[in-house]
Automatic annotation (TrEMBL):
Pfam families (alphabetical): AAA_16 (PF13191)
Domain Orc1-like AAA ATPase: 24-73
Protein name in UniProt: Orc1-like AAA ATPase domain-containing protein
InterPro entries in alphabetical order: AAA_16, P-loop_NTPase
UniProt-listed SUPFAM superfamilies: P-loop containing nucleoside triphosphate hydrolases
Length: 103
């Protein structure tokens, strides 16, 4: 979209999101666990699996559901961070400083 305006990019973004939603199938069990975590006490969910099984798509769906429930969402991609606690803390600083901790 060379030279496109903000409206063009917004339309493209909506189309991309719609395509992702159409392509996302299954994972009812995982989504149920996540929905229960949203309704319940503070939880930690561990997502793991072989490459290419849809972990990133599942995490995007978790984020979407969290936003829909009014929860703040912060996205960090470990592929773009230096693998150190300091880099993580810098990237997540606003959340870690202003967020409520689990107890």
């Amino acid at each position: 979209m060379r030279g496109g305006n903000e409206q063009d990019f917004a339309v493209l973004g909506r189309r991309l999101q719609a395509a992702r939603e159409r392509a996302f199938v299954g994972r009812e069990e995982e989504l149920g666990v996540f929905d229960a975590a949203l309704r319940g006490a503070c939880s930690v969910l561990y997502v793991h699996g072989a490459g290419g099984v849809g972990k990133s798509a599942l995490l995007r769906r978790f984020g979407q559901r969290a936003e829909e429930s009014g929860r703040p969402v912060t996205r960090l991609d470990g592929r773009t961070l230096d693998p150190s606690p300091a880099a993580f803390e810098a990237a997540a600083g606003a959340v870690l400083d202003g967020g409520r901790g689990c107890s």
